[in-house]
Structure formats: C-alpha cells, structure tokens
Amino acid sequence: MNRAVPIFLPFILVVLLPQVLPAFAEEISPVYESIDPYLATPASGHLYEIPVVVMRFLPTVDGENLDTAKVPGYWYLGHISLTDIKARIDTFDKRIKFMLEEGSRFRGYKEPAALPSLGYRVVEYITIYEHTPPGPVTAHQNDGTPLYSPDFHQIFDRFNMEHYVNDLGVKEIWVWMGGGNSDFPSYDPAVNKPEDFRHWWESNMSSPLTGDISNSNRDNSDLPVYNSTYTVYGQNIWRTQAEAVHNHGHQLEAILSHVNHLHDGNTDLFWQQFVGQDESGNFITGRVGWTHMPPNTTKHYDYTGNRTLVKSDIEDWTPDNTGARKLVNVDTYSNLTYPWPDPNPAEIPQRVESQWYIYWMQSMPGYENRIRHGNKNITNWWVFTADWDTAISSQIGLVSQAVTEPQVQDSSGANGSVDLEVVGSPADLNGDGIVNILDLVIVANAFGETTPDLNGDGIVNILDLVIVANAF
User: From CA 111, how far away is CA 102, in angstroms rounded?
Assistant: First the structure.
C-alpha cells in the first residue's frame, strides 16, 4: 500500500540541509599529494639543496568549490572550483621554484653557464580542505576588529613538521592560505565572519640558534622551535608567483642585513652600498636596488612601467662603487629571455615584476663572484639561505676574512702522474672566507664532474674531498 509523504518532510530537508553541508568539509581528510617531478627535482648543478614542504589550506562547504565566505578574494568574493584553484597553485609552485633557483645563478642573465647556488626539492605536498585554525591576535582593523594569525603550533603538531625539519632537513615551509577582513572591498558582513579574518607574515623564521630573523614582528613564540632553523613563507591563494617570491626578497633583506650588522655593527654594506641609500637612510638610484625598487627609481613597487634611464652598477657591483655602469630601466629586465617552465612565458601574469626579482637576485654576490672588498672577498650570500645554522655558527659574514691570492704548486711524481697541490688557498670553494662543511657539500655534490677538481686529476672524487677536509 502506498504511503503518503508527510507534507512537512520537504520543509525539514530544506531547513536541515544547510546545517548538514558545512560538516562536509570536516569529513574531507587532508591529501598527501603526488609531487610533480619538476618540484621534486632540484636544478641541475646546484650547490645547496633546499628541502621544502608545501601546504595549502582550501576550505570547502560542498567538496567541489572553495568556501569564499572564509577565504574571499580582495575585490570580489570570487567563485572558483577546488579543481581550478589547485591547478592555479600548481602552476605558481613551479614558477616560484624556477624563480628562486634561477635567481641564485650569479649574473645568469649574461653568464648562461652560471651554476645555481640553490636547488629546491619539495619533499611533501599536503592539501587541507579547511580554513587555517585561528591563533593569536597579531593585528587589528581600524574599527578594533581583531585579526588572527594562523595557529602554526596546532598545524605543525598535527602534520608532524618536527619530523620534516629534524629528520628530513626541511628548511622552508610554503603555506598557501587565505582569509579576508573588513577592509576588503569584497567584505559582506552577512557572509564574512570576523572569526575567519586572518593576518600572517610574508616570512617567519624559527631558529634555535639566532631566534626569528625575518620580515615579521620577530616573535620567537609563534612557531615551534626544532633542532634546526626553518622559514615559513605565507602565500596568498589569490595572488601569483610574483608576490610569493616578493616574500623571499624581503627575507633575503632581513637575513643579509642581520649578518652585516652581526659582523660590522651596522648595515652599511648591504643597505647603503648594495641596495643604495644615503647616510640618512634615504633610498638613492644607481646601485642594485631592492625588493620594492629597481635601480632607476625611489618609488615603491615601481617595477613595471618606469622607462627612465639611470646609470647603475647592478651588473658589475662592487662595494666601493668602481664597477662599470650602464643605463637601466624596466626594459633591462623585462626584455631578458629566461627559461620559464611555461609554454608561453609572455602570457605569465606579472611577468615583468617577476623578472625584476630574478634579475635582482642574480645580481647578488653568488658562487664564484670574485668581488673584492679591500683585501677581502665578498662571500656567496646564498649560503645564508642554504644553511643558516652552519653559516652563523661558522661566523661567516658578507665579506670573507683577509685573503691572499692562491698559488698552484706542481708536485708531479717521477712516473709522470699529475698532482697539482693548491697552496695558499684553503679550499674555500664558496668564497665565504672559511673552509667548512659547506665546501665539503660542494665537492660531494660534484662527484664525477670535472669541477671543482682541486688536485687536477680531471675528476672530482674522494681525493678532492680529502683536500678540503685537511684544510678545515
């Protein structure tokens, strides 16, 4: 016998459905993604490897679309499927890795054979279909509404970041996330709730050795402290590779100026002589510039349309300002041809801005820079990104200890074997002024290659490793 459906049943479903759907997001487990081969493979010829964990927080109500009530866009709430936003982030990850590796090739824009100091390897990739859990209040809106930082203690404990840092040597954690506030033009008080507002730092360091040296408020308690130093990069899911690498630029400024002050008691070498400032700290044109300013401007974020030509030593920088100068403007870096991992580089959003960051990083003293500062060498500044703990504990600075020109002594045997011994040079392969484990790493990574062949036998092998070890 057919039974009539109670007339109030559809009403019950309509009422209860919205209460059931939000719970759906809590039932989606985090996904440990397969890592794209490009992300898992450091750049060829790199000197130092940077293991990375990538995390992306993508809250959802229905399991198909991003919950823009919790993570709205700036101008508009922005409807986007999880499939589409994950594809966007996948593309940005590749560009970020490329930019950081390419940027560590010293003057690679004119030296195609320049080796990258850094090689990035993503060792874990985790997608979490939730909003970041709220942590401490780190800022307030003009109306007094609090902005919460993500609770990284809770996040990292849940996903065992201690294992990745202590056991796998992870040095960077890239965290993709979102979170609006009432200043956004897209803000709708009926949709966006204050408890979902977020505020995070572009870069944030945790270090058992130095404490937090980063572009943050340098609160040593906001991240777990593990056995070695790591840096968290906060990356906005609505932005591109440009803003993500912009964050790395400010981190470089933070650590390099810290090292400068640690050794010299001031930051003149980095900010005045490298970046370009006068004695009062005002920015000037004509030197190398910084994350916000190419060499032809003193206006912030002026990287994309300024064709004013200014003479700069960016491509031949020396601390004493004696390097060759050339006229530079936006065309100098926008017209460079970089091997982007995209089929159509011209279509890359914010490509010109992104190429400024690459060009600027390539102008930093890197591997085999051979820049002198009096009777000293400028070191490979990428060492501080590559291994902060070893660099700091070894008292490496932006400038090496006093050096003498190396000599090569021929000590070939009577049987005709070639044995060239480096005399007067302590096997300081990265030019940091001291022979230590960083130089051993360079030799170990080059086994089977032809350089750096310290004993002249035509191949890098254990004999070269012994030379470095004996020079410690």
Answer: 12
| Closest to 383 measured CA to CA, from 114, 42, 112, 104 | 104
* Average pLDDT value for residue range 413-439: 57
| 159-213 pLDDT per residue, tens | 999 999 999 999 999 999 999 899 999 999 999 999 999 999 999 999 999 999 9
CB-based burial label for 423 (10 Å; 0-12, 13-18, 19+): exposed
Rounded Cα–Cα distance for residues 431 and 319 (Å): 16
**Torsion, Cα of 428, 433, 437, 442 (10° steps):** -40
d(CA 397, CA 416): 42
CA triple 431-437-440, angle to 5 deg: 80
Residue 232: closest CA among 246, 249, 251, 217: 251
Where are the strands (E) in 178-253, listed by range? Answer: 203-206, 230-236
Q: What backbone torsions phi and psi does residue 406 show, to the nearest 5 degrees?
A: -70, 150
Q: For the chain, what's the residue count? A: 472
> pTM score, two decimals?
0.84
Find where tokens 């506030």 sit: 181
List, for residues 118-174, the tens digit of each pLDDT value: 999 999 999 999 999 999 998 888 888 899 999 999 999 999 999 999 999 999 999
Range with top average pLDDT, 178-182, 250-254, 416-420:
250-254
- State the Cα–Cα distance between residues 340 and 241, nearest whole angstrom: 12
- How many other C-beta atoms are found inside a 10 Å radius of the C-beta of residue 62? 11
Q: Angle at CA 449, nearest 5°, toward 448 and 452? A: 120
Phi, psi angle pair for 90, to nearest 5°: -55, -45
CA distances from 9 to 19, 194, 456 (A): 16, 35, 86
Q: How many CB atoms lie within 10 A of CB 236?
A: 18
**Tens-digit pLDDT profile for residues 353-378:** 999 999 999 999 999 999 999 999 99
Task: Extract the tokens encoding 54.
Answer: 């990538």
Record the tokens describing residue 32, joined without a space.
């440990």
Grouping H, G, I as helix, E, B as strand and the rest as coil, residue 327 is strand
Instruction: Indicate the Cα dihedral angle 456, 461, 462, 465, nearest 10°.
Output: 70
In order of their start, the domains of the chain are 29-255 (no CATH), 266-362 (no CATH), 374-470 (1.10.1330.10)
Dig out the tokens for 314 from the structure.
């960016």
